[in-house]
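Final report, closing paragraph on structural work. Over the funding period we assembled a curated collection of sequence-structure pairs, and we close with a single example.
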Amino acid sequence: MKTMKKRIISLAMAAVSAVTMISSGITASAWDKQPIKYVDPTVNYRWDNEYKIYKIEHLTGDLNRDYVINVADYSILAAFVKGKYHGNQKIWEFGNGGNIFYQYQFIKVFGDINYDGNIDVTDLVLLSAHIKGEKFITDKDPYLAVC
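Its predicted structure, as stored:
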């Protein structure tokens, strides 16, 4: 079932990418790997050949991308939950007029501490407990697919 779901998601993303590429004038030879115009130096990514996407992989809870989970990450998540963090810092841009991904999208993936699909007070409590050393975050290998 999971494999089928991943395949359906992959096909849907491929269709959206194909329409984007056609409308932006990217040739068919570029459909496998879009050229990357910019990547923030703190972003760890890799090409997933099976799904034909780039995956940004990172530690859950490390929202400022310094590879340490601390009060700075808590401040970012608290502002995000309150709706006061806009995260307009660019972290990824494809060449040829392709998609741009911002810090906001990064936080929506790696700030979801309990993996329920929502960023809320529960995530703040879990991040706080991790920082205090009371209960540690278990990383389920999340990633942000960029295509």
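Residues 36 and 130 are 35 Å apart (CA to CA). The first strand starts at residue 36 and ends at 39. We thank the funder for supporting this effort.
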